[in-house]
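Consider the tokenized backbone below.
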């Protein structure tokens, strides 16, 4: 029994109102799907990072784009045996469920350290949405009979800011690639459209999460006095190094026989994710181009005055600029 409760960790947080499953109106859900991907502030001027206006509009965006879908009423389409086998075999389910579990805890742990009520509420809602992702995934694995490894209970982080930075930047990396892989799965037709539709709100929600994170980071760093700002930038650099090391480390252990089961899952997916969801061979450059395209499409509906995560898209564009002429020469 999962007893996680954001309200217990972040005093004052109230979960968004949700009607009983029978009261949910399909037209209202369709309107929410549209609302969740389009948002513009009614304020006419610039949104300067660090200002109260920037903070207020960032948090308003997060509240007003909330999608009230309920995991309990999601449709799990029946799958042909080959489709089901392909989904069950994807080496991601343990890691996905555990990642959502860690994200909800770390976001709530950092939210409760904030005094500013607007940002505290937005981050607590983000934690609540991670909890909902975990619920969606748990229902999916149950519906398709996917066996999960026993889940370790993550402890409350000793350094909530560090843990939040690690989670936030991890989401920036993982979401960028997930957007492309998800589209690849849709285009290949190897996953039924109904299943793609069921997961679509989760995917767009990750886009909102990293939009919130980029604006939290911009707001937070702009308000820090010089010395604390230096310390913060050093921490951000350390987080990127840590994440790069973690990912390179995982890639290096491919083929190693003494690998922990959870590492094995992550490794395989890093290298074979695209092949698992595509009908034909997909090159790294094509995958990168698709990720960039999808990243731009998912962010296009949000006010351009809000900050976007930029590091991973810039790195991907750079790699693409290097890879394309090389491929042409070959
Ligand atoms: Fe999530
Ligand atoms: Fe998220």
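A designed sequence for it:
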């Amino acid at each position: 029994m999962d007893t996680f409760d954001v309200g217990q960790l972040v005093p004052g947080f109230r979960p968004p109102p949700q009607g009983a499953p029978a009261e949910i109106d399909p037209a209202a859900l369709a309107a929410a799907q549209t609302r969740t991907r389009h948002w513009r502030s009614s304020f006419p001027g610039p949104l300067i990072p660090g200002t109260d206006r920037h903070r207020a509009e960032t948090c308003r965006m997060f509240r007003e784009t909330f999608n009230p879908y309920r995991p309990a009423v999601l449709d799990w389409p029946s799958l042909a045996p080959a489709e089901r086998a392909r989904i069950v075999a994807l080496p991601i389910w343990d890691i996905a469920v555990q990642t959502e579990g860690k994200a909800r805890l770390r976001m709530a742990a950092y939210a409760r350290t904030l005094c500013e009520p607007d940002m505290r509420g937005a981050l607590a809602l983000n934690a609540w949405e991670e909890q909902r992702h975990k619920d969606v995934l748990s229902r999916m694995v149950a519906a398709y009979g996917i066996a999960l490894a026993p889940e370790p209970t993550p402890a409350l982080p000793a350094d909530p800011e560090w843990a939040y930075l690690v989670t936030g930047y991890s989401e920036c990396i993982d979401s960028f690639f997930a957007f492309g892989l998800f589209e690849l799965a849709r285009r290949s037709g190897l996953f039924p459209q109904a299943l793609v539709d069921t997961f679509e709100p989760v995917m767009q929600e990750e886009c909102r999460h990293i939009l919130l994170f980029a604006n939290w980071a911009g707001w937070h760093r702009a308000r820090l006095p010089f010395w604390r700002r230096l310390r913060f930038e050093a921490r951000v650099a350390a987080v990127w190094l840590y994440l790069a090391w973690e990912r390179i480390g995982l890639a290096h252990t491919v083929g190693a026989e003494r690998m922990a089961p959870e590492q094995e899952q992550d490794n395989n997916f890093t290298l074979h994710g695209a092949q698992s969801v595509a009908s034909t061979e997909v090159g790294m450059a094509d995958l990168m181009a698709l990720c960039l395209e999808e990243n731009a499409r998912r962010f296009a509906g949000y006010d351009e005055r809000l900050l976007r995560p930029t590091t991973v898209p810039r790195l991907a564009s750079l790699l693409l600029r290097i890879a394309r002429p090389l491929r042409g020469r070959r």
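The domain at 50-329 is CATH 1.10.620 (Ribonucleotide Reductase, subunit A).
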